[in-house]
Amino acid sequence: MVENALEAGCRHIDAAAAYGNEAGVGAAIAASGVPREELFITTKLRNGEHARAAEAFEASRRALGVDTIDLYLIHWPVPSQGLFVDAWLALEKIFAADGVRASGVSNFLQDHLDTLRAQTTVVPAVNQFELHPRFQQATLSARSRALNIAVEAYSPLGRGADLNAAAVTLLAHRHGATPAQVVLGWHLGAGNIVIPKTTHPHRMRENLTAAQITLTQDELDAINELDSGTRIGTDPAKAAFSQM
Question: Which of 17, 48, 96, 144 could bond to 149 as cystine, CB 3.0-4.6 Å?
């Protein structure tokens, strides 16, 4: 799949130790012939390794076969174990040693961000969390941006469930685009970084062309109105799995 994505023109690869895909991503990168400087590689710290973030990072770097990771994220805050501040302090040291170009967080809610702000010195570059038309998390997005943290949306298409909304299909017809392209255009219009997931090469190419779609404010607002507060994934306030 990574080979297909690179061939289609994708250059941002989102991996994670918990996905078990770092070695495969590394092998695909090595075989692709794409210059390293053209790639942006993200991977993530597993929940069960908050107390040994430095060692976990080195394992990820070896698995990926790279000297520097572009973006390293704490995958979940797991507030019940109370270690995400310690993990972030370790990431600060990794950043200071040039092991990563940027450090960030994933699935961090407002109170988690505020805790980091109060107890640490480096602001996360990115907060990656579930965000799509039916679950827009406007308050969390605004808080992240207020702290100069870029918003990155995972499940940006609502795992496909948001593509059948009437507002989306109407705009797709109007723009001669696919519903996925319209939703990705909405994300880009809102200033979100998006990482759509697909195993189909033709959809990878279609997703890349979404950058060419410009929606008017009225069209953006039509999709904004789809927000129902319906979360698909796990609530970060309750997530307590180790990923080990």
Answer: 144
